[in-house]
Automatic annotation (TrEMBL):
Family: Belongs to the sulfotransferase 1 family.
Known EC number: 2.8.2.-
Gene3D superfamilies xrefs: P-loop containing nucleotide triphosphate hydrolases
One Pfam assignment: Sulfotransfer_1
Ribosomal protein listed as a keyword: no
Keyword Transmembrane helix: yes
Lineage, opening ranks: Eukaryota, Metazoa, Chordata, Craniata, Vertebrata
Name of the protein in its database record: Sulfotransferase
Domain Sulfotransferase: 253-517
Gene: Chst15
Swiss-Prot/TrEMBL keywords: Membrane, Transferase, Transmembrane, Transmembrane helix
InterPro entries according to UniProt: CS_Sulfotransferase, P-loop_NTPase, Sulfotransferase_dom
Amino acid sequence: MRYCINCCIHLLPNDLHRQCFRCRGPNHNNQKCPVCKGENKIPLYADSKQMKLLAVLEVRTDHTESWNGFFCLRKGKLCSLIFGLLIMTLVMASYILTGAKHGLLLIPSPFHYGAFTSNPSLMDNESLSDMKDHYQPSKMNISYVKDYPSIKLIIDTITSKIEFVTRQRPDLEELRKQEPHMFSVIPNKFLPNSKNPCWYEEYRGNTTTDPYATNSYALYSKRFRTIFDYLRKVFWNHLYHYKDKHYRLRCLPHFYIIGQPKCGTTDLYDRLRLHPDVRFSAIKEPHWWTRKRFGIIRLRDGFHDRYPVEDYLDLFDLAAHQIQGVLQSEASKERGKMNSIIIGEASASTMWDNNAWIFFYDNSTEGEPPFLIQDFIHAFQPNAKLIIMLRDPVERLYSDYLYFASANKSVEDFHEKVAESLQLFENCMLDYSLRACVYNNTLNNAMPVRLQVGLYVVYLLDWLTVFDKDQILVLRLEDHASNVKYTMHMVFQFLDLGPLSEKQEALITKSPASNTRRPEDRSLGPMLPTTKAILRDFYRPFNTKLAQVLFDDAFLWKRT
């Protein structure tokens, strides 16, 4: 399609366009021309339709010849090119200066891309989205390096910096200052005739009050609303009336399945909830201790309103109703009769996820969190029982990658992400302690794969600073997969659960495994041998320490 450059009229292939005075030659006079004089603007038409851009687009006539217009066009392109080169020069200068400032240039290690900041105030002021960008490593070489000896140098540096230092446990008054509302809601003592930690709380609402109107779990998630609709219907039937007052039974879990992700916790949860004396929260993984009480729904989305402890306690109302029914029954009034129902909670983030601490607690501990999740749980429940399911950390990481990666999954991509994450972890270890790096929110969000979740012994040692060893049961997924009946018996014994009939036991132990690997992920096959060797070297010192703490060489994972 051709157009006249002077008046923008659509031309046919052989049209000489004689009707345009501008096309008649160099002697054409604009002032004398009946078409050109008068209005100095010509509307733009294409295919007999007037084109509109921001209401009306008009093309002003040019009183110079076509050849002059061509030179103007070339001048415009030249100006744009010069402007573009100027912007590119400024960007390159900024990159070079920034690289020199952060140690990105002229460094000995071929994988040193980006230094880990040693300024805690910088991390406090950065947004959650900015922090990942700040620690994003360069992909100049590391994304394609599969040179085992070179990456081994990084691992050797990390290993040389490992120190397992016992953390100092905060006292109770310090905890009260940090969470005064939580301490005002949860009492110091629980009902003596219940195996599960429960207490009665006065309810001041009336019959028209919705007890779950402000519950954040119900407000932010549609899939939980059905549960709360049911709780609303039965709520008044379970209130305890005494001296013209209404009381509701509140409960905390008796035990927690605290970790780790992709280690079989879902399968353990599904089997354990089939036991007649076990109840769980209305939601399998509330993530309240680690995330929701800080206002975190998804960390990449920033912070929302904090979920108060009352919202968390609401999740155990179904179980509390059943416990209350037992407590008020005639059989429970017998002397010495104890309610045997216990409640569990299975958030797989509880053991390891302390990423939010830096935004809420005073950062005066050289990068280490002054308070951990277990400090608060122990303050309220010093007799709580904890169950941990672990697996070979090398295989756990690969399973984690397959489950959470959204696109372009491949063994090569996994290898590249492992190499990048190792580099970031090394950068941190050069300036900070092991605990500071493991609990560092910025580093953990920057790493493409969650290396830190497999450092089991670091977390376990910190839990052992507040809980006794006999309160923690540590299992291996490999043992659970090979002999479900044996591991479930260990769990039943640990929780002091009553005996089961053969039919009940068969239902629990012979049901198919839960949350297994998806078929599309299985098709990718195992990780590269080089990647496995790298991860074996990285996790070896941590597995060695774990085996020493648990007095069990099976946690070395030598045969997997």
